[in-house]
Amino acid sequence: MQPKQTRITEGFDYFLKQNELGKTDSKNINQLLLMMDENGYIDKQTILEKIFAKAADANANYRNFIKRILDAIGRLIEDSEADSKEKRILNSIEVNTLKANKMRKAQLQLKVGYFPTDIQPLKNWQYDDENFESNTAKDATQSIDESTIKVFISYNKKNERDVQKFKRLFDEKMKLINDKKVITWTMKQLLPGSKFDEQIQENLNKSDLCLGALSQHFLKSEYILKKEMPHFLERNALFLFGLDKRIDGKESSIEGFFRKVSQESDKDNANILQQQVCS
Question: Which of 1, 62, 150, 276 has the fewest CB atoms inside 10 Å of its own CB, making it the most exposed?
């Protein structure tokens, strides 16, 4: 591998290990690293065909993907200590979209201007030695988090404060399940610039189980009822817990929620749901 190509791979390896991007975007970056030439260039059309071929609007997906990368780098720069090596690395990372002209096709350019030889990035949740070799672009089709269990917390946004308190307690008490590291996801981790529904569905699809935070607002949510509950019920991976003691049964009730679930799903799923309410 050429020196410039090595520095680009090392820089993006460091960026990925900060765990600021989701699994799908991380895989796609790995694929870009495999596709780039020695100077970090990739033809845009190649990216559209190899990464976004199945997308309804490949160009829109491409633009949103680039924006998520740049936003993630920006957040990490903002959180880094002033004048640190980490900040210098992140500031030197570039993702440039180049328009077609008479001399070239439309391209994407990856650049890393600075990467010191003595820096050792912290090991990341999602990237252990088995799944992500240091400074090496892995095959983007391979799973990167088989050693973790991802928990999706389903709740109404109006209960955000209580849910975050629960999440902190859960993260403290349930660091491992069956010797696997537990990672929890809530809507507080939604990223600006992309449709919230798409982000929720992406995290829902890659989660192993769901904890439903019962409250008055939860029971009245059509989104939870129609888009979140069926997914986990079909996999028998849903557990409900009481978040709000103020459920009075007037505006909404657990029994009424079960009836709605029965209408949206089959009766067996509704029975499973009733059995999985945690006190």
Answer: 1
